Amino acid sequence: VSPQRNGPLMGIVQDSLCGIYKICRRDVFLTREQVMNIMMWVPDWDGTMPPPAIMKPRPRWTGKQIISMVLPPGLNLLRVEKDGAPLSEKFSPLNDNGLLIHGGQLMYGMFSKKTVGSSGGGVVHIIYNEFGPDQAIKFFNGTQRVVNYWLLHNGFSIGIGDTIPDAETVRKIEAAVRARKEEVDSIVASATANTLEPLPGMNIRETFESKVARALNNARDEAGSATEQGLKDLNNAVQMARSGSKGTTINISQI
């Protein structure tokens, strides 16, 4: 932990980060055989398996249960999403927003760069402060072994199919770009007609360049947000961007 920025210098990155995001999804279920294989990678495993989340028709364990095996017992962390939803919905979020770890068990939410990366107030920081450096090392080792073993069998690849949006998303992107092009045209027209007002501390040429750059940047950002809303969370490129392992929504919109 760095005293300079009050946060850890190390965090989960790249493959492990994408894997830990995917294993926390609500639709990840593991069979008894898979769980017993993964338990071999849990540090200081006591030999007991957690009870399955689903009993009938066949026992199934969730990915959240598996990743909770690596967390130290007694770890508590609450992250509430600032999305304007009523307080009653914060603790049973429909989209698995926010994060709640209670007694070392991940109750809801998905691990991402914000929570298991090298950011202050995250899981790594709290484990180091409350349980000591040895427990933080066990968390790093256990997490990466468990997640990478699961990801090896689950698989993850990105293809051209992840970069093709639906027709509605294409329309939204085109509308955003068209609106900003019209804005640039009006700026060019006012500059040509010599009616462009210079901004404070700039001459006419600098003002023109600044306004055009801002309009084009807005077009890129709007296209990026439209793309992110249009693509489902099953999309591999979106999963990489949301987990924080590689890329951003802007990169996805550029593709």
From TrEMBL:
Record-linked PANTHER family: DNA-DIRECTED RNA POLYMERASE, DNA-DIRECTED RNA POLYMERASE II SUBUNIT RPB1
Protein's GO biological process: DNA-templated transcription
Organism lineage string: Eukaryota, Fungi, Dikarya, Ascomycota, Pezizomycotina
Record-annotated RNA polymerase Rpb1 domain positions: 1-163, 193-255
Keywords: DNA-directed RNA polymerase, Nucleotidyltransferase, Transcription, Transferase
The protein's name: DNA-directed RNA polymerase
Cellular component GO terms held in the UniProt record: RNA polymerase II, core complex
Molecular function GO terms recorded: DNA binding; DNA-directed RNA polymerase activity
SUPFAM superfamilies (UniProt xref): beta and beta-prime subunits of DNA dependent RNA-polymerase
Originating species: Talaromyces thermophilus
E.C. numbers: 2.7.7.6
